[in-house]
Amino acid sequence: MHSSVYPTTFTGKTVIVTGSSRGIGRTLAEAFAAQGANVVVNYSNNSGKAEEVVRGIKAAGGQATAIRADVGRVPEIESLFAQTFETFGGIDILVNNAGLMHTVPLLQVTEEDFDRQFAVNVKGTFFACQAAAARMNEGGRIINFSTSVTGAMFPGYSVYAGTKGAVEQFTRQLAKEFGPKGITINALAPGPVNTELFMQDKSESQIAGIVGMNAFGRLGETDDITGAALFLAGEDARWITGQTLRVNGGFV
């Protein structure tokens, strides 16, 4: 359970964190709960991990529920929002954290792999924003996840970085559509973070090379991303919208 080093500023708010059974999403779910929010722990496959997150939040005195939905499928996004309303009566904050990353050289990219990454990372983010536009309370917050790799040039990352470039443009272009309801929409672009998603398909030498690219000589940890997300979700960020914030330890 994430320790509460912040005031309980989200009491009474309901937060959906997509892909929050592990990694950055899990840390964010725990952090929002520690600040008093009702948290929807969304997952696509691993119900055991999601329920583990919920149990931890409840054991620490928080409120949470796990809801299965593959955000790469629009009807399941709609179901996620409907179940959230049924459980908590509304939604105030959406964190589009769910994502896939499969890094291979250009000649090895398959149509299936391309379509799946775009389905989850791009279509999932866009249609979750659409669902939020229809259902989110006034003064709400949307936080999309990009990547600092969009500012680098890494072989094998073309599809993944392409999906996140689209997410950054959604974030910019939708800002004025959400503005009349007082809803902000911003993106976080983490650098390399020590998660299962990042570690897959990488050798120790690759990881060491990436570690050497930032100012602090280490991988980011999920806790390093939490403060920026909580800031964007809070009242102090009410005049920030349509922006992408790189949270990467000086990686790029």
Sum up the structure in keywords:
alpha/beta; disordered N terminus; 252 residues; Rossmann fold; 44% helix
Biggest sheet details: 7 strands, parallel
Q: Mind telling me which CATH architecture this is?
A: 3-Layer(aba) Sandwich
CATH topology: Rossmann fold
Low-pLDDT sequence parts: 2-6
CATH domain class name? Alpha Beta
Mean pLDDT, to the nearest integer, reads 95
Query: Which strand order do you get reading across the main beta sheet?
Result: 3-2-1-4-5-6-7
Q: How many DSSP-defined strands?
A: 7
Number of domains: 1
- The 3D shape can be described as globular
- First-to-last CA distance: 31 Å
Description:
Strand 4, helix 4 and strand 5 form a beta-alpha-beta unit. This protein has a 7-stranded parallel β-sheet, sandwiched between helices. The chain has a single domain, classed as 3-Layer(aba) Sandwich (Rossmann fold). Helix 1 packs parallel to helix 2 and helix 4 packs parallel to helix 5. The longest helix has 25 residues. It contains 8 helices and 7 strands, in the order E-H-E-H-E-H-E-H-E-H-E-H-H-H-E. The protein is of the alpha/beta class. The radius of gyration is 17 Å and the shape is globular.
